[in-house]
Specification:
8 helices, about 260 residues, 7-stranded parallel sheet, binds 2-amino-2-deoxy-6-O-phosphono-alpha-D-glucopyranose, alpha/beta, single chain, Rossmann fold, 3-stranded antiparallel sheet
Length: about 260
């Protein structure tokens, strides 16, 4: 795993976004895996700015989101589809039919999940997958105890995740307890994974993911077995890591090699 530790939270967004922009330059028809939550918002702003100010085009790109609440319609303000429209899709030139988010209202969710997997495969798989991380180490909505080989399916949310996400719901709104999420096996097939995390609340999950054992108790720890994962952190999210100095030394060596 490549671990990049940055002082400034804004830099996490810029560096995270750079992996997507570099890939898009090489391959305009890139297939991106996208995430929701508060962590990706600044990164999406970087992509929007690249489109507005630098003429970067997403017109040939395809996107697949990690997850969606089950039982919530795409046009509901709390849906992840709505989140993606407001925070990214409405501001770039991606073709609407090329953006995919699991259908939270699917009448037959099992078939819908299988179909989601097939759609990813039909596009040749995901080139670069963006991830945030839950405080309990979840990725997508793959909560602790999720099979490390899992595919897109219905998952029950933990109490901790429901509480963490309660901030997005008003008191009178019914908060979903189920989701449709890509599996850990699905995520592991992405050619590159970029996980971003900021803030002290993520420090333990980051420590367990990078320096703990590979375990279904911390779903993100499975990324230790992925051949091209980059984890971009601010100093607070990195603060529990034992080997911070080494990760920084590796980055310095990398920069020297790139400059040579
Ligand atoms: C949600 C999403 C995850 C996200 C996590 C952390 O549960 N399903 O994809 O990584 O929350 O969100 P935040 O970035 O707001 O901390």
């Amino acid at each position: 795993m490549r671990v990049i530790i940055l002082e400034d939270t804004d830099d996490v967004a810029h560096v995270g976004a750079s992996f997507f922009l570099q890939h898009l330059e090489l391959k305009p028809a890139s297939v991106f895996g996208l995430a929701t939550g508060s962590s990706p918002v600044a990164l999406y702003n970087c992509l929007i700015n690249a489109h507005r100010n630098d003429g970067v085009s997403f017109s040939r790109a395809t996107t697949f989101n990690l997850d969606e609440y089950y039982g919530i319609a795409a046009d509901h303000v709390q849906s992840y589809r709505h989140f993606m429209q407001v925070n990214l899709f409405n501001h770039i030139d991606v073709v609407p039919s090329s953006t995919h988010v699991p259908d939270g209202m699917a009448e037959d969710p099992i078939t819908a999940c299988l179909r989601y997997e097939e759609s990813i495969a039909e596009q040749g798989g995901i080139d670069v997958q963006l991830l945030g991380i839950g405080r309990n180490g979840h990725i997508g909505f793959n909560e602790p105890s999720s099979s490390l080989a899992s595919r897109t399916r219905i998952k029950t949310l933990t109490k901790e995740t429901i509480e963490d996400n309660a901030r997005f719901f008003s008191k009178d709104e019914v908060q979903p307890t189920l989701s449709l999420t890509m599996g850990i096996g699905t995520i592991m097939e992405a050619k590159k994974v970029v996980l971003i995390a900021t803030g002290r609340a993520k420090a333990k999950a980051i420590k367990d993911s990078i320096e703990g054992p590979v375990s279904a108790s911390c779903p993100a720890s499975m990324l230790q077995l992925h051949r091209d994962t980059v984890i971009v952190l601010d100093s607070e999210a990195a603060s529990d890591l034992d080997n911070q100095a080494f990760y920084q030394f590796v980055e310095e060596q990398r920069q020297k090699l790139e400059a040579a």
